[in-house]
Amino acid sequence: MSKRVILYCRVSSDEQKNDRLSIEHQERALRSYCESHGYEIVGEPYHEDYSAKDFDMRRPEIKRVYEFCKRNTGLADLVLFLRWDRYSRNVEFAFTYKRLFMDELGVEINAIEEPIDFTATDWPIWLSIRCGVAHTEDIKISRRTQEGIHEHLMRGEWCGRAPRGYRNIKANEETGADHYIDIDPVTAPIIKKVFAQVAEGIEAPMSIKRRLLPQASKSSFFKMLRNCFYIGLIQVPAFENFPSREVKGKHEPLIDIETFNAVQDVMDGKRRKKPKMHKANNPNLYLRKYLVCPICGHRVTGATSRGHGGHYDYYCCNHDHKHLNIRAEKANDAFTMCQD
Questions:
Q1: 263 and 288 in a common domain
Q2: Which domain holds residue 307?
Q3: What is the per-residue pLDDT across 166-185, written as a single tens digit (0 to 9) for each?
Q4: 11/122 same-domain check
Q5: Are residues 232 and 191 in the same domain?
Q6: Domain assignment present for 157
Q7: How much is the pLDDT for 198?
Q8: How far is CA 236 from the centre of its chain?
Q9: Which helix (H) or strand (E) holds 3?
Q10: SS3 (DSSP) at 261
Q11: Banded pLDDT at 248 (limits 50, 70, 90)
Q12: Do residues 72 and 106 both lie within one domain?
């Protein structure tokens, strides 16, 4: 009896240009293999364009294969793919899904290149080797990538998406080479205004965010205010034996150091200005800053009363009005006579 087979093809985004790894190449090879072995293909092939590092929700098609086999018991005997690195590049998940497919559902999984005989006692060794080689390659690639990023950051070259107020520039659009960071003429003025107003310490930062950057999330807004990138520095995280540090970036600063430090003080709660609300000075009460109450010694204040069709100014004790309450006109005349 011929086997009923489900075809599974996978390619990650960085492998799309490799013809030998393309979805079409894999499907042609799998169909040719099934034809030569007399296998019956069940349904349409499952095409995956995500990484094979793990089996989380970034691998929706392999999950669909599993759910299909689970719902349709006995409909498929084998899940077939080109090579073991098309199935998994992680040893742990390779063994996990081997158990789910083969031990729980009775559906074999295998590759047409270097297939594994799961009836032999040494199959765990071969599965470890097949997927472990790919796993090791991923670890090496990841390490080289981290080393490259760290080296660029140490040279003051930003790696990744430019922060708000800046933009990523490709000097050579055809080759994608010579990337650099430049100030964005559209968003930079807004960022400058945000920093300047937060530095004043008068209005709450969240209020400023709602007015000037309503599209930004709360976390990204506060992260932006702490980012030393805006004063021309790059924060290099700790890597291996190298501690974290700040280095001078090759990009142009957007915020001056004084404004940035003032923002940090506001964020740390060290600086908070409150606008002073001054009342208009009454020229008829010009002595209130200089007089003291003859009874209790407190400063004398002034007030204006309304009555009998007019407004009347009085000096009074700031502590108790019963101590002193005198018409301003009388007190001012007495002061003038003393001066004469």
A1: no
A2: 283-339
A3: 999 887 555 454 678 899 99
A4: yes
A5: yes
A6: no
A7: 94
A8: 16
A9: none
A10: helix
A11: very high
A12: yes
Strand 46-48 versus strand 233-236 pairing type: unpaired
- pTM of structure: 0.55
* Token pair of 13 as six digits: 């985004």
Q: Are 132 and 244 members of one domain? A: no
Percent of the chain with pLDDT over 90: 47
Instruction: Show the tokens assigned to 26.
Output: 């894999």
Q: Are residues 171 and 120 in the same domain?
A: no
Same domain? For 213 and 332 the reply is: no
Supply 90's token pair: 């992680």
Q: How far apart are CA 74 and CA 86, in angstroms?
A: 24
CATH code, domain carrying 243:
3.90.1750.20
237-to-10, 162, 277 alpha-carbon distances in Å: 34, 17, 46
Dump strand ranges (E) for 252-340: 300-307, 310-317, 325-327
Determine the residue type at 233: L
> Using N-to-C axis directions, what is the helix angle for 205-212 and 188-200, rounded to 10°?
160
Q: How many whole angstroms separate alpha carbon 127 and alpha carbon 125?
A: 6
Q: Is position 241 within any domain? A: yes
The token pair at 197 is 């107003």
